Here is the input.
Amino acid sequence: MKRLALALALLAHPALAQEDLTVGFAIAKSGWMEAYDTPAATAAMIRIDEINAAGGLLGRQIKVVEADTRTDRAESAKAGLDVLDQGAEMMVVSCDYDFGAPAALVAEGEGMNSFFLCAEDVKAGIQGVGPNSFSASVLAPVQGATMAEWAHAKREARTAYVLEDTFIEYNKGICTGFNWMFPQLDGAKIVGSDTFKNDDASVASQITRIKELPDEPDVIMLCSFMPGAAAAVRQLRAAGINSLILNGSAVDGSYWLEATPDLSGFVVPVQGSIYGDDPRPEVAAFNAAYKAKTGNSPASQYAYPGYILIDLWAKAVERAGTVDGAAVTVELEKMRDEPTAFGPRSFTSELHHQNTALMQIIEITGGKPARVDEWRISQPVPLDALMNK
Amino acid sequence: MSLQLLFDAMALGGIYAVAALGIALIFGVMRLVNFAHGQFIACAVFALIVPSADALAVMGLGALPAPVLIPLILLIGAGLAVAAEALVFRPMRNASPVALMVSSFALGVALQNLLLVLYGGRPKAVSLWAELGHPVRIAGASVPLLQLIVVAAVVVVLAGLALMLRKTRLGLEMRAAAEDFTMARMLGVRSNRVISAAFALSGGLAAVVALVLVAQTGVADVRMGGQIMLVAFIATVVGGMGSLSGAVAAGLGIGAASALLQAGLPAEARPFRDAFLYGGVILVLLFRPQGLFAPVGAKPRV
Here is the structure.
C-alpha cells in the first residue's frame, strides 16, 4: 500500500521523479569476474532496499543503474562513462583494483565518490585513484598480519614458512602483512620462503624445498587465491606436510574444499562467517536476507563488503546532507570505528581502507569449516609497510 | 635431493610434452597453430562435472570408475577436436595460415565463453583420484604416486604414438602429409581422413593433459588451459615447427628447466623464474631460429 501511495504521489508530481538518487554500478556482469562482483553487488542492493523501505536517503529513493565491464579493463572505463550518462551520482566499481580502477577514475574525474566492491590493495583508494575513492573491504596485509598474530597467540606458532603466489598484487599484500607482523612476535621466526604462480601445473619443486627443512614449520603462510590456492593445498597435503596452513580471506568458502578431501588445519580470516555460526545477530540477519533474495547463502565472505559500503556511504551522505563527492568524503574520513554489521570501520585522510579490523577466524577441520575465534591485530599495519609492497 | 628433483622435473616436463605434441600433430598436417588447444584441455576438465553456475561442483562423469572414465574423457576430447575441425577448420582448408590461426583464437574464445555460460566464472573443486597424491618412497626420494603415473603415462602415450606413426597405414599417411601435403594427396593419401585423425589424436592428448592436471590440482577453472597452451606452443617452436619428436623433447626440456630453475635460483630471483626460462628460449632461438629439431621440409630448398 505504501508503495502504491508513493507511486501515485510520484505520478501526481512528475517533478518528484527527478529526485531519485542514482547509484551507478560499473561492474562485471559477464566474464570470470562476475562470480565475485555479483554477490557483493547483491549485498549492496539489499542495503539499498532497506534504506528505500525506511524512507530513502535525504528523503530521496535510491535508484540503481548498471553497466557491464565484461571483466575487461578497457570496457571498465566505458562502463563508468555509461553509468555516468545514466545519471549516476555515486559509483560502485568492480571488486578488483585492476578491473575497477578505470571506472573509478571516471568517477574521480567528475568529483564523485567511488567504492570498490571488495578491493584489498592499498591502491584502490587515494593512492591509486584519487581523494574520493574508497574500498569497503579489509586490506590484504591486515589479513596476513591477523593470521601471524593469531597463530602465534593461539596456536603457539614459532616457525613459519611463507609460500607466495606472485600472480596478483593481493597475494603480495597478504605476505607483506605476515612478513611485517610475524618476526616482531616473541620467539617467532620465518624459516624460509618460496614463490609460485597461480597457474603453475605443479608446485612439486616448492614442496621439495619445504621437505628439506630440518623440521616441519609450525605454520605455512599461503598467499594465494583460487584456483592456485586449492591446487597448492592439495599438493602440500598429498606430500604429507601437516603444518597449519594460513591464508587470506580470498580462499573463504566451502565450494573448493572437495579439491582436498578431509582437509584439516586450514585457517582463513574473514569479515563475517557464511557458515551460520557467526555470533553477531546482524550477520545472521544479513545471511537470511541474502538467502531470501538469491535462494542461497553467500558462497564466500565477499558479499559482505557490498553491504558495508552502501551502509557507510549512506551514513556519510546523511551527515553531509548532500551526495557531493568532496563533502561526503569529509564525513567518511571522520569515521573512527564506525559500527557496521560486520565490525567497526575507519577512514582517514591518508587511507580509505581498513588497516586494522576485527576478523572472524574460520578453521577447516575434517573438510568442515567453522568459526573458531575472532581477532583484531594489536596495532594497525603502518602505511610504510602497506606501501612498501 | 637429486632424484626428487628429477621426478619433479620429469612430471612437469611430461605434461608439457604431451600438450606440445597435441599442437605439433595438427601443425604437421595442416600448418595450423591451434590456439584453441588450451580450451580443449579446459573443456575436457569441465566434462567431469555437471554443468551449473552454482559454487559447489557436482561430479557428473567424474564419478565413474577410472576404467570407464579415462576412455570416455579421451573420446570427448577427441570428439571435440574432430568437431572443431569439421565445423571451423575444414571450410577454411584453403585459407592462409594466418587466417587459420586467427580462427583458432576465435574458437578458443568461443569455447571459453561457452564454459563461462554453462559453469560460471568461479573455479570449481573436482576431487578426482585424490588417493593418487599419496607419496611413495623410492631410493630416498618421496614421490607422489601421481607423478610416477604421469611419467609412466607420458611414456606409454609417446611410445604408442610413435608405434602408430611408424607401423600403421594411417601413421604413414600422417607422416607423409606432414612432409608434403600436396604430394601426399597426389599419391593417394585421403586428406580428410588424415586431418581428422590428427585432430582426434590431438584432442585425445588434450584430454590426457586435462586428467593429469585435475588429478594434480583438484580444481577446474575456465582459464586453466591458457598457461599450458602457451608453454606447449613455445615448445613446438623451440622443437622445430612440424617436428613431433622435437616438440616432445622441447616440452620435456622446458618443464625440466622450469623445475630446475625453481629449485636452483636464489630466493630473490625466484619470482622471475619465467623470465629466466623464456630468456633461455630466446637464446635457443637466436642460435637455431628454425628450432632444435627442424624437419627437413622446413628448410628453404635451393
